[in-house]
């Protein structure tokens, strides 16, 4: 069983040396457990946050343990009555070929859909965009929605959904090429580059009536700049803060809190997608319908081979990805 293990807590930017490649014995499924062959691994910004010693919504990944990761696989052997060999499942399978996981921690998936869609548009990524935008942001036609990490997995879907809702949509991204992709291919109204020293000015010009909803994937200084442009009564959807994950010295701030929140009557609200687990089917149906109607595309950045998992995460944190980063392990 090939595995990537986390050997030390990264001090600043993630490095390949923080991991070690190992060959372990094939695990056995214990009582209530299911042995799963891992086929498609999800690479998520949150993976980096889980390596920090500070607990997130999950405890830190154990040192020298298998790196935690979400993925899709096929049941090989099962000691759980609800799952049979051959079933397709999703869950925290880890950065490894085979995982023995309690059956109750797995979710059975229909075998007829492509695994790539199940991990991306119909997976945590699409549902994070869906529930964050519609439950927390609640866009109305004509409002201005800004989304950071706008060319990433979650952000690229958020922007397209906000267009479906009739909003003016502006993306914040890390390169001119990504700006062109958002406006040229995904239907965003405008995009600005956060590496541009005049980003705040460019954002102001792109949002002439101010910002009603900010879907925040990055936190830090970009959040601070956006807060000054929010309209009265605006909503900030706090989805994540990737600018603070891969650094030993998280940016201070944002400044302007709480004064700006008071004066502008702003609401900042966080969420974790699993809060909406009971309603996943509703989001899947809506997202699949929009994709089938040609109104939504979920871009995939697919890497081949488990050996490339650390580099895939390093690339995501450096903004080298467009859309959802996934690693094909088998199948
Ligand atoms: P993405 O595919 O969006 O990749 C991360 C992107 O962040 C990069 O492509 C990069 O793009 C951008 N980025 C990296 N560093 C910075 C920085 N310092 N400043 C600005 N942008 C930066 O990853 P995910 O879709 O996996 O995650 C997006 C966000 O969603 C994360 O914050 C994650 O934690 C959150 N999330 C939250 C969930 C929840 O339940 N609340 C569930 C799933 C994800 P660029 O080139 O534009 O810089």
Please, could you describe this protein's structure?
This protein has 331 residues and is of the alpha/beta class. It folds into two domains: 2-120 and 299-328, Alpha-Beta Complex (Quinone Oxidoreductase, Chain A, domain 1); 124-274, 3-Layer(aba) Sandwich (Rossmann fold). It has helices at residues 45-50, 115-119, 124-137, 153-164, 176-184, 199-206, 220-229, 259-264, 280-292, 309-317, and strands spanning 2-6, 19-23, 33-42, 71-78, 88-91, 98-102, 107-109, 144-148, 168-173, 190-193, 211-216, 230-238, 267-270, 300-304, 324-328. The strands form three sheets. Strands 3, 4, 5, 6, 7, 14 and 15 form a seven-stranded mixed sheet that branches. A six-stranded parallel sheet has the order 10-9-8-11-12-13, with helices on both faces. α3 (124-137) crosses α4 (153-164) and α3 (124-137) crosses α9. The chain is globular and about 60 Å long. The chain starts with a strand and ends with a strand. The relative contact order is 0.16. The model has no long low-confidence stretch (mean pLDDT 97). NADPH dihydro-nicotinamide-adenine-dinucleotide phosphate binds at residues 44-46, 124-125, 128, 149, 151-155, 173-175, 178, 194, 217-218, 222, 239-243, 271-273, 316-317, 319, 321.
Short descriptors:
single chain, 331 residues, alpha/beta, Quinone Oxidoreductase, Chain A, domain 1, Rossmann fold, seven-stranded mixed sheet, six-stranded parallel sheet, 10 helices, 25% strand, binds NADPH dihydro-nicotinamide-adenine-dinucleotide phosphate, ER, NAD(P)-bd_dom_sf, NADP-dependent oxidoreductase, oxidoreductase activity
């Amino acid at each position: 069983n090939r595995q990537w293990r986390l050997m030390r807590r990264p001090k600043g930017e993630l490095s390949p040396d923080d991991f070690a490649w190992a060959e372990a014995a094939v695990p056995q499924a214990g009582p209530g457990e299911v042995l799963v062959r891992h086929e498609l691994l999800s690479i998520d910004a949150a993976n980096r946050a889980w390596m920090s010693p500070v607990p997130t919504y999950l405890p830190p990944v154990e040192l020298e343990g298998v790196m935690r990761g979400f993925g899709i696989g096929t049941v090989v052997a099962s000691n759980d009555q609800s799952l049979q060999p051959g079933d397709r499942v999703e869950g925290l399978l880890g950065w490894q070929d085979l995982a023995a996981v309690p059956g109750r921690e797995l979710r059975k998936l229909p075998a007829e859909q492509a695994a790539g869609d199940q991990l991306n548009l119909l997976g945590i990524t699409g549902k994070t965009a869906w529930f964050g935008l519609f439950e927390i942001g609640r866009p109305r036609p004509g409002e201005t929605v800004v989304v950071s990490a706008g060319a990433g997995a979650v952000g690229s879907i958020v922007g397209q959904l906000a267009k479906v809702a009739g909003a003016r949509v502006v993306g914040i991204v890390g390169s001119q090429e990504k700006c062109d992709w958002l406006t040229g291919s995904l239907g965003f109204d405008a995009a600005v580059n956060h590496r541009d020293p005049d980003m705040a000015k460019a954002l102001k010009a792109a949002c002439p009536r101010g910002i009603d909803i900010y879907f925040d994937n990055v936190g830090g200084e970009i959040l601070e700049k956006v807060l000054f442009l929010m309209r009265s009564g605006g909503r900030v959807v706090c989805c994540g803060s990737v600018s603070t994950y891969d650094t030993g010295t998280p940016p201070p701030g944002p400044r302007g809190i709480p004064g700006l929140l008071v004066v502008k009557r702003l609401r900042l609200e966080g969420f974790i997608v699993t809060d909406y687990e009971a309603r996943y089917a509703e989001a899947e149906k809506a997202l699949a319908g929009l994709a089938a109607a040609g109104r939504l595309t979920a871009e995939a950045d697919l890497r081949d081979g488990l050996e490339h998992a650390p580099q895939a995460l390093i690339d995501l944190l450096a903004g080298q990805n467009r859309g959802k980063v996934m690693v094909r392990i088998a199948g």
